[in-house]
Each structure stands twice: as C-alpha cells, then as structure tokens.
TrEMBL record:
Keyword terms, alphabetized: ATP-binding, Cytoplasm, Kinase, Nucleotide biosynthesis, Nucleotide-binding, Transferase
Region (NMP): 31-60
Upper classification of the organism: Bacteria, Pseudomonadati, Bacteroidota, Flavobacteriia, Flavobacteriales
Annotated ATP binding sites: G11, A12, G13, K14, G15, T16, R128, G174
Name under which the protein is recorded: Adenylate kinase
EC number annotated for this UniProt entry: 2.7.4.3
Complexes and interactors: Monomer.
Binding site for AMP: T32, R37, D58, L59, V60, G86, F87, P88, R89, Q93, R134, R146
UniProt source species: Flavobacterium ardleyense
InterPro entries membership: Adenylat/UMP-CMP_kin, Adenylat_kinase_CS, P-loop_NTPase
Length: 190
C-alpha cells in the first residue's frame, strides 16, 4: 500500500496533480475540503458537528477532521493506497494521522511538496479567481494571508517528515505534464 501526502501553497497545483496521480497509481484521493463539503451537504453527524464550528467562523477542530478522514479510509479497505490532499496541515494532525494509520498497520509512504515562488502562485490564483468565483482567489492580500498561514502552520511539516526521511520537494513550475513527470519520478523511486 502507498500513502502519499501532497502539499503545497494554494495555487501550487495540488488538485490538478492529484487527478493524474490517483488514476495512474489507483489511489483514493482524500481532499479534506471535499470531505467537509460532502458531510455537510449530506447532513451526516460529523457534518452537523463541523457546521456548528464553521457557522461561528471557527476552524473545525482536528478531532472532527480526523474522524471524517478515518471514516473515508475505512470505506476503502481494499485500495492500493491514499493520496491525502489538504491534510495534515499541522504537526499535531500529522501525528494523529500516523497514529490512526499505524492502528491499521499502514503508514505514510512519502510526502511531496509542490514548490513554487509566491509571486507566480499569486498570479495563478488571481487568474483562477476570474473564473472560480472564489473570493479568496480574487484578492492579493487574502492570498498572501493564506501563504502566511501556510508558512506558520504547514511548512514545519517539512522538518517533521524530513526527520522520517519521507519528504520530497518537487518543482511545481512548468507545464502540467512536466510537473506530473517530476511527481511520477519521485513516486516510482519509493
């Protein structure tokens, strides 16, 4: 089984690349954003709980997010592996994910960060914002705020996974095909 954490700043191409990787390696793509939306839309118990926090403008606690993720993993017992997108975002979440996977006799195989210059990513998001309808993709100040949040909370994951010899950085700039080839080279070397 192969379990990959794909991370990078907003606009780095995680969603685009996840589509290719899940097909090529027969992985289940677990996007926390998609999982939240599904649970809320379908009025599940976890969705109702998450919504109580979101309605107040609070972040959904790690424990709720992890329960949703565990539920998705449990729904797919016979897959080749998982592609985690948007989770973990903090070291506490990474430790909780390790604990959960260890209980299933699994582990994170590798983490792959799509690296790119902030100015290039800002331009990408502003362009995406013209068609996405997402207000957070249409305001450079909000975009840079998201990067500050990423640097503060998510970037320390690099050291966490480097200490386990599971961290790989991939240049996220270039054509979709070029970036995909770089990702495949890392995965094929595992």
């Amino acid at each position: 089984m192969i379990n990959i954490v794909l991370f990078g700043k907003p606009g780095a191409g995680k969603g685009t690349q996840a589509e290719f990787l899940k097909k090529k390696y027969n992985l289940v793509h677990l996007s926390t954003g998609d999982i939240f939306r599904f649970n809320i839309k379908n009025d599940t118990e976890l969705g109702k709980l998450a919504k109580t926090y979101m309605d107040k403008g609070d972040l959904v606690p790690d424990a709720v997010t992890i329960q949703m993720l565990e539920s998705e993993v449990d729904k797919n017992p016979d897959v080749a592996g998982f592609l985690f997108d948007g989770f973990p975002r903090t070291i506490a979440q990474a430790k909780a994910l390790d604990l959960f996977l260890n209980g299933k006799k699994q582990e994170i195989t590798a983490t792959i960060a799509l690296a790119a210059d902030d100015n290039i990513l800002v331009a990408r998001l502003l362009e995406r914002g013209k068609t996405s309808g997402r207000p957070d993709d249409q305001d450079e100040v909000k975009i840079r705020n998201r990067y500050d949040e990423y640097n503060l909370k998510t970037a320390p994951l690099m050291d966490f996974y480097k200490a386990q010899d599971k961290f790989h950085a991939v240049d996220g700039i270039g054509s979709i095909e070029e970036v995909t080839a770089r990702l495949e080279a890392v995965i094929n070397s595992l």
